[in-house]
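ok trying again, last paste got cut off:
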Amino acid sequence: MIPARTVIIGLGQTGLSCVHYCMRRGVRPVVMDTRTAPPGAEQLPEGLECHFGGLNAGVLLNAELIIASPGVPLATPGLQQAAGAGVEIIGDVELFLRECRAPVIAITGSNGKSTVTTLVGEMAAEAGLAVGVGGNIGTPALELLKEPLNLAVLELSSFQLETTPGLNALAATVLNISEDHLDRYDSLAHYRDTKLGIYHGAGLCVYNREDGETLPPAGSRAVSFGLNEQDYGRVEHQGERWLAVHGEPVLPVRELRIVGAHNQLNALAAMALADEAGISRTAQLAVLRRFGGLAHRCQFIAEKQGVRWINDSKATNVGATLAAIDGIADGLTGRLWLIAGGQGKGQDFGPLVPLLSTRIAGMACLGQDRAQLLELGDNTHEVADMSEAVSWCAQQAQPGDWVLLAPACASLDMYSSYLVRGDHFATLVEAL
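nice, full thing came through this time. structure:
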């Protein structure tokens, strides 16, 4: 039951889903937002009581239930006063869980959440389950209640976990922990502890044995994933590296479309979660063999004449390009050809120099700051545009080689966004 005096704080896509949820149950909530013109305000039903540009303390103290947006810290004075007065404060995910009758797979971590959530969702669909995928990954959790579900797969941020006391997932994972959101948390330990809240009440805790910060509480039923042979891991088999479950090889790493050791960890985590949900190994492997990754993030595009083409258009600075090259190194057996260039934003491209003499066979340089890139080594090549870059790399590459778009630069000299740049690259590759 939704109480009559319900207040929703924070609009946008999630806030609107909360409003619609309440309205469908005959409750007209009060809506607040600290912004004077919050996104979605024009979509609100007529006649709702709204307070924009700040929080109304009197209304909050009179509420029976407050549904707070993930973007509103619980440390906000108005919320603290309401909590002190005994007002229940939850988030949209908690509201979803109170009605959802399907088992829930819950996924969090500093990196890789969206990839693992997508993988598990696709594995469930491949197995014929009616699956809902949402949370922090586009679809608000409450929207998943519109259709009957066999399984819900939720990506959850630390902000969402703050207001989700009743998770009790079938299986839950913390993929990794690194410094993030320290403008909201007073320490890394505080941020980590919030993430670890996902394990509360979980039937199975899936943790990363490469990252000790992800360990579940003592006494939990748990299984781990990592890059050695334990639990969900890797083994050497038939002269090559395989993903394995409890030492049993199940898939050669070379058959994965997602690239890099970090994505092997993501695949192993997804398998552990899918196993707990009863999803067949056949369905899991079918997805792992075809899933090319999320768009523009070391995304596998195609294999043409034995050459793999990878789109990391999101690599808009040197650090991101170095990370992309490092990430794919584990699966690369041939040579690497790099496409780079655009708006350099005053960066030092020097860190690419050692790679040009060791790991990069050649680099096609385009865009506004290509001259700086051309000076980095003898194996650089000037091109006029992306079409010429793809054509040159296709001429140079041999079977077993990989071509990586990781520009180390912004796109705005040639494209409206890195998304458009990546899509153009993909279109050109598919046409080869």
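cool. The chain has three domains: 6-90, 95-290, 299-430. The first helix runs from residue 12 to 24.
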